[in-house]
Inverse folding.
């Protein structure tokens, strides 16, 4: 005797999903894309002030102390140097940034190679001393440098070169740390392979080590320039009569910041973005090659 069991069709299979499935699909999509959504929100939070600066660079304010968008104009771009001392202060900041970047990057790269590739007495102490300028508050470092210059009889010489010395000092630490991180991830067998192919130390450095470490050196140089260009506290304490761009903005804020300041900020942002994009495209081209 056989028994035949017939399955009863579900009442909800007539067309479409069940209400439970319909309710869980949005939650499942949100869970799958939660990291992406949070990343986009954080990116928007970081870029929002820059977008405001770009927008205000085209602003035609109704009053000197107005910080609202009152009208569109291109006069801020065409008459960039109209505020007194704006272009000269930008020129001082650019010269300081370039000089401090070159010197700090050169010295910091040599120090990073020495500290990663060689073992010597006092290496741990040197690591701590290099990290100190990064951990020290700027007001402490600025006042200490001012006391050093005054005690050395350089109070009347405060100006461009004292700012330059101060900028090299705090940029040096960031360069060493950045290049050291790049060197730590470098496979030493690549240099050993170059030596096995009869390359001397100089050829190995220029053709193997330097190309592999160059992205870290470039990142350190960009970081140094950014730190030097926008530094205010240390610069203000050791500037004398020299006026940099951050000091000009601080002084102008007491009377109303001119819209041309936003133009300078927009230009600097676009230049930095261009450098990053070109570097990324070059890196992808080298990886494909």
């Amino acid at each position: 005797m056989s028994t035949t069991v017939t399955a009863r069709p579900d009442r909800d299979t007539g067309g479409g999903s069940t209400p439970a499935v319909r309710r869980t699909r949005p939650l499942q999509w949100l869970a799958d894309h939660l990291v992406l959504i949070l990343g986009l929100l954080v990116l928007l939070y970081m870029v929002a002030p820059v977008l405001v600066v770009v927008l205000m660079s085209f602003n035609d304010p109704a009053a000197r102390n107005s910080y609202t968008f009152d009208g569109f104009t291109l006069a801020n771009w065409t008459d960039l140097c109209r505020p007194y001392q704006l272009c000269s202060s930008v020129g001082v900041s650019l010269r300081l940034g370039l000089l401090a970047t070159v010197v700090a990057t050169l010295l910091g790269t040599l120090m990073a190679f020495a500290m990663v590739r060689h073992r010597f007495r006092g290496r741990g102490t040197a690591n701590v001393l290099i990290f100190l300028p990064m951990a020290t508050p700027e007001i402490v470092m600025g006042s200490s440098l001012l006391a050093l210059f005054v005690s050395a009889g350089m109070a009347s010489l405060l100006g461009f070169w004292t700012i330059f010395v101060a900028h090299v000092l705090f940029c040096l630490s960031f360069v060493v740390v950045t290049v050291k991180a790049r060197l730590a991830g470098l496979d030493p067998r690549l240099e050993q392979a170059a030596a096995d192919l009869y390359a001397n130390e100089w050829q190995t450095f220029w053709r193997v080590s330097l190309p592999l470490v160059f992205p870290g050196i470039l990142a350190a140089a960009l970081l140094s320039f950014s730190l030097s260009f926008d530094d205010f506290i240390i610069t203000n304490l050791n500037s004398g009569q020299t006026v940099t761009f951050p000091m000009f903005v601080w002084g102008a804020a007491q009377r109303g910041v001119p819209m041309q300041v936003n133009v300078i900020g927009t230009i600097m942002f676009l230049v930095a973005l261009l450098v990053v994009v070109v570097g990324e495209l070059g890196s992808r081209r080298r990886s494909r090659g």
In short: The mean pLDDT is 85.
